[in-house]
C-alpha cells in the first residue's frame, strides 16, 4: 500500500535503515552517465546541470543531480546495489527533491513523473514501490514518501515514466536531487481502545509500535499526552503520532466509544395471586460481557439475569459489564394477578310449586380471563349461569386461564304457590317507594313473554319482552291504560291476558 508520510530526515544511521550511497547524486556533469555508486538501469540518464540540453537549474544539495526522460516506447533510469536489504513487509520512508524541465534537447517536455522500483541482481524493475503523480512544477519540491516491499530486495532504482497525457510523441522528463541518506524503517503503529462508561471519562487508548528504530516517543491529540497509554478519557476521536529514533513517524487515529448498557426487561407474573412466584428476566446488550447483576442492593453479583420466586413489589437491578460500566434499573414493578374471587352471585329461586326454573349466575373478579365454570359433578363451561335448577344446595367451581380456582355454593328454594302471572291494576309513580312502577308479578317459568301498554287512543306507550322490566309512566298523563300480555307458561301452554290499569299522579 502506498502512502504519503511527513517525517524528519536525519543523518543518524541505525541498523534497520538502509544506506544510500551518494544520495545527492554528485558526479561530473555528463550525458548518458550515472553518478558514482549508481549504474545506468535503462537508456541514457544525464548528470546535470550544464551537460547538455540547456538544463542550467542549480542543484538543491551539492553540485549535480540526475535528469531522466521517457517516451511512450522507452524510459531512462538509474539503480544502486544496496549494502543492506529492503525487507518484505517493512515500511520505509524516503525523501528527495524533484523539478520539471520545461525544455530538454530543445524539445518541449509535457510533464514529469517518477517511478521507484526495487529488484535483485540485474532486475531493476522487480517491484514498483512508489509512483508519483505527474507534475509540472519547475521549482524544486521536496517529496516525503513511504513504501512497503512485498519481498526482500538488494537493488534500488529511479525511473522516469511517460503518461497518457503526453501525446504526439512528446517527451516526459524529471530532475531528481538530494535523496535522504538512508531508506529509513518507519514504526508500525497498532492502536487499541477501551470504551468509556456512559457519561463518564473512563476510556483508555493504547499505542504499540513494532519496527522502526526505538525507543519511540508519542504525542496524542487532543490532550498532548506523551505516553503509550492514556487513561481517563471521555468518548471522542483521538490521534497519536509515534516518532522513532531515526526521525520517522507514524500517525494513527482511534475512537473511544461510549458504552451504553441496554436492558430489555421481561416480567413474568405468578399464575395465581399469592403464589409469590413472579420472575424478572433481563436481556443485556452493549458493553463487554460477561455482565454482573446486583439484585435489590445486594453486594454479591450473579451472572444469571433471572430472578425468581419474587413477591409483588418494586425492585431494582444494577447491571455492570466486565470493564466496570454500570447502569441501575430502578422501580421494576412486579404485579401478580388480583385474587380470583366471586364478586357477586345472583340466585333465582323456583317460581312456584309445579315448575323447575331455579337459576344461579356468577360475577367474577380478579384472576386472568377467560373464566370457566362448573357445578359439582358437572362439566366445565364458559357460561357463568346455570338454569332450570331444582331446589337444593349447589356447589360450584370457577377457574381462570392459569388454572387458579375459587369455590362457592348457593341454595335454591321452591316457592310453594300457584304457578301464575299477576298483573296490578294501578300504580302511582310519585317516588314514595310504594307502587312506583307497573310490573307483572311472574310466579311461573314463562317463555315468549310480551307485554304491551296502550293509551286511550290505542298508541303503544310501553313494550317489553323481559318479565323483570317495569313501566315508570314517564311523560304520560294520569288516566286509564290498556295492557295486553302473552306468554307460554311452564306447562308449555300459550297464554293471553289483558286488562286495564290506572296511572295515578
From TrEMBL:
Pfam families in UniProt: CHU_C, SprB
InterPro entries per the UniProt record, alphabetical: SprB_repeat, T9SS_type_B
Source species, domain of life: Bacteria
Name assigned to this protein: T9SS type B sorting domain-containing protein
Organism: Chitinophaga solisilvae
Amino acid at each position: 500500500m502506498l502512502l504519503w508520510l511527513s517525517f524528519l530526515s536525519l543523518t543518524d544511521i541505525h541498523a534497520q535503515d538502509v544506506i544510500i550511497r551518494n544520495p545527492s547524486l554528485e558526479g561530473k556533469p555528463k550525458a548518458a552517465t550515472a553518478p558514482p555508486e549508481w549504474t545506468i538501469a535503462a537508456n541514457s540518464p544525464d548528470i546535470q546541470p550544464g551537460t547538455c540540453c540547456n538544463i542550467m537549474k542549480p542543484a538543491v544539495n551539492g553540485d549535480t543531480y540526475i535528469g531522466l526522460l521517457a517516451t511512450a516506447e522507452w524510459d531512462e533510469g538509474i539503480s544502486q546495489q544496496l549494502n543492506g536489504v529492503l525487507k518484505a513487509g517493512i515500511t520505509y520512508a524516503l525523501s528527495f527533491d524533484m523539478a520539471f524541465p520545461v525544455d530538454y534537447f530543445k524539445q518541449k517536455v509535457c510533464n514529469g513523473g517518477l517511478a521507484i522500483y526495487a529488484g535483485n541482481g540485474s532486475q531493476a524493475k522487480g517491484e514498483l514501490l512508489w509512483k508519483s503523480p505527474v507534475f509540472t512544477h519547475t521549482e524544486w519540491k521536496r517529496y516525503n514518501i513511504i513504501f512497503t516491499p512485498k519481498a526482500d530486495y538488494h537493488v534500488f532504482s529511479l525511473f522516469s515514466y511517460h503518461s497518457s497525457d503526453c501525446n504526439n510523441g512528446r517527451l516526459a522528463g524529471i530532475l531528481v536531487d538530494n535523496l535522504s541518506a538512508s531508506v529509513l524503517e518507519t514504526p508500525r503503529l497498532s492502536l487499541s481502545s477501551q470504551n468509556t462508561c456512559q457519561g463518564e471519562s473512563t476510556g483508555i487508548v493504547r499505542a504499540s509500535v513494532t519496527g522502526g528504530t526505538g525507543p519511540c516517543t508519542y504525542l496524542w491529540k487532543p490532550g498532548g499526552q506523551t505516553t503509550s497509554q492514556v487513561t481517563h478519557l471521555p468518548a471522542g476521536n483521538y490521534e497519536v503520532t509515534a516518532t522513532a529514533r531515526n526521525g520517522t513517524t507514524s500517525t494513527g487515529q482511534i475512537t473511544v466509544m461510549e458504552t451504553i448498557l441496554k436492558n430489555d426487561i421481561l416480567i413474568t407474573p405468578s399464575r395465581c395471586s399469592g403464589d409469590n412466584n413472579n420472575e424478572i428476566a433481563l436481556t443485556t446488550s452493549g458493553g463487554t460481557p460477561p455482565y454482573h447483576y446486583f439484585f435489590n442492593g445486594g453486594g454479591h453479583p450473579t451472572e444469571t439475569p433471572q430472578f425468581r420466586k419474587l413477591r409483588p413489589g418494586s425492585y431494582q437491578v444494577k447491571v455492570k459489564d466486565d470493564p466496570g460500566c454500570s447502569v441501575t434499573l430502578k422501580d421494576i414493578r412486579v404485579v401478580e394477578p388480583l385474587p380470583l374471587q366471586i364478586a357477586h352471585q345472583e340466585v333465582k329461586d323456583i317460581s312456584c310449586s309445579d315448575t323447575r326454573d331455579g337459576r344461579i349466575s356468577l360475577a367474577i373478579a380478579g384472576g386472568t380471563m377467560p373464566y370457566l365454570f362448573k357445578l359439582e359433578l358437572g362439566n366445565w363451561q364458559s357460561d357463568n349461569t346455570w338454569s332450570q335448577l331444582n331446589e337444593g344446595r349447589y356447589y360450584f367451581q370457577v377457574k381462570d386461564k392459569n388454572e387458579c380456582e375459587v369455590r362457592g355454593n348457593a341454595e335454591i328454594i321452591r316457592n310453594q304457590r300457584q304457578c301464575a302471572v299477576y298483573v296490578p291494576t294501578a300504580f302511582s309513580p310519585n317516588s314514595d317507594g310504594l307502587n312506583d312502577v307497573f310490573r307483572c308479578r311472574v310466579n311461573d317459568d314463562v317463555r315468549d313473554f310480551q307485554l304491551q301498554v296502550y293509551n286511550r287512543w290505542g298508541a303503544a306507550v310501553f313494550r317489553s319482552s323481559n318479565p323483570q322490566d317495569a313501566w315508570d309512566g314517564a311523560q304520560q298523563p294520569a288516566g286509564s291504560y290498556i295492557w295486553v300480555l302473552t306468554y307460554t307458561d311452564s306447562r308449555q301452554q300459550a297464554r293471553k291476558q289483558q286488562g286495564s290499569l290506572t296511572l295515578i299522579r
